[in-house]
Design brief:
Elements: H1 3-12, H2 35-38, H3 41-65, E1 81-86, H4 92-104, H5 106-109, E2 112-117, H6 121-125, H7 127-131, E3 138-142, E4 149-156, E5 165-170, E6 173-181, E7 188-193, H8 198-206, E8 216-219, H9 221-233, E9 234-246, H10 248-251, E10 262-265, E11 268-270, E12 287-289, E13 292-293, H11 294-303, E14 307-313, H12 314-321, H13 332-339, H14 344-347, E15 348-355
Parallel strand pairs: 1-2, 1-4, 2-3, 4-9, 9-13
Antiparallel strand pairs: 5-6, 5-8, 6-7, 9-15, 10-11, 10-12, 14-15
Helix pairs in contact: 3-4, 9-11
Length: 372
């Protein structure tokens, strides 16, 4: 089977998959940390950006219909807007965002129609309890995006967990890695073979990637399919994607020539290595991730009618939002962790896309638009 098929089973099998067997995998008691695990400050800062986006959507829509109402505030409207979190888990990030909105922007809070997208049924069962009082804004929960929506879609560390095809360049051309059982002792191993789909070579051409002999790489066909589907379903609004990754020119370069497939278990990471890859061990028992190719995601989104508004480090995104809130002394450590160079601040990238909204200047891009 392809590495993508193996990842899909290991991570998302409805009974045996890594994400299916637990309602929450991150945090101190889990296998890895995300920005959400740092504390509620991440959600509070993200709410600032989402609130501004809702205001832009409201004002632009209503002044287009009634030009005399150019001073209209978001609080004066009554129609609902969709807030969609993809890869929501048990809803912790949305809970932090909605609790902040209820306190800071009650007019927007009352208009939000929340939809949580999560593949794990076990995680979905815990969402209402996690949301608490904010569950009153929950309009739906399921494994798939709504067929049509208008508002803001956001995802934190979703794309890096999507299945990828693994390839290696040889002197004779591009080869794909497949997973099979070693006939000598039954253990899983990888073998090389022809490409399973012409889309793999087309993908690399699309991002102008030139792999050298011996280089390994991952091809995120699932991520590009996902953003294409999201773009088609979004009638009007914004998409915020926060994830580990790089532009294609860096991802498909000598600095990542051994590939980026990595496992996380009990806060220990195991990356590319010679011999049997760590990600083949104990299927369903450990996380498997690969760095996101943001160039392919961005170009696919633009081909589907979205506009790129910004691509920047999480550090600069959060610094742009910081002036809009008052950080308590107890949250200073949270902020430093979210901004840490070499940690979440620089390894996490933020891609902001829009549809039928123009190219507005956003608070999250007001400090600096920079990728390190």
């Amino acid at each position: 089977m392809t590495v993508a098929a193996f990842m899909d089973l290991a991570l998302y099998h409805p009974e045996l998959g890594y994400y299916a067997r637990a309602g929450q995998r991150s945090g101190r008691a889990g296998d890895f940390f995300t920005s959400v695990d740092v504390g509620p400050l991440f959600g509070e800062l993200l709410e600032v950006q989402i609130a501004e986006m809702f205001q832009l959507l409201t004002i632009n829509a209503e002044t287009a219909e009634h030009p005399e109402k150019r001073s209209l505030s978001a609080n004066s409207a009554t129609s609902a807007f969709d807030l969609i979190e993809a890869g929501a888990g048990n809803g912790r990030l949305s809970a932090d965002i909605l609790r902040t909105a209820k306190r800071r922007d009650p007019g927007i809070y009352e208009r939000v129609r929340l939809h949580l997208v999560e593949a794990s049924e076990r995680a979905r069962r815990g969402q209402r309890a996690t949301l608490g009082d904010a569950a009153e804004r929950l309009g739906g929960s399921g494994p798939h995006l709504p067929e049509s929506f208008e508002g803001v879609l956001f995802a934190n560390e979703l794309l890096d967990a999507m299945p990828v095809h693994a390839v290696v360049m040889r002197a004779g051309g591009l080869r794909e890695l497949y997973v099979e059982a070693d006939p000598r002792h039954g253990a899983l191993t990888t073998v090389e073979g022809p490409l399973s789909s012409p889309s793999i070579a087309e993908y690399l051409e699309h991002v102008d990637a030139r792999l050298q002999p011996g280089w390994h790489a991952e091809i995120g066909l699932a991520a590009t399919r996902w953003i294409a589907g999201a773009a088609r379903r979004l009638r009007r609004g914004f998409i915020i994607l926060i994830d580990y990754g790089h532009a294609a020119r860096e991802l498909y370069s000598v600095s990542h020539s051994t590939g980026t497939l990595t496992t996380f278990s009990r806060h220990r990471a195991a990356g590319p290595e010679s011999g049997t890859p760590a990600w083949l061990a104990n299927p369903g028992e450990q996380d498997i991730t690969a760095h996101v190719d943001f160039t392919s995601v961005q170009r696919t989104a633009e081909a589907e009618g979205l506009t790129t508004i910004a691509f920047l480090d999480q550090t600069y995104f959060l610094l742009g939002l910081l002036p809009s809130i008052s950080i308590q002394q107890s949250a200073v450590t949270q902020f430093k962790t979210l901004m840490m160079p070499g940690g979440l601040g620089s390894t996490q990238k933020v891609l902001i896309l829009g549809k039928n909204v123009g190219v507005p200047t956003l608070k999250g891009t007001s400090f600096k638009v920079r990728v390190t």
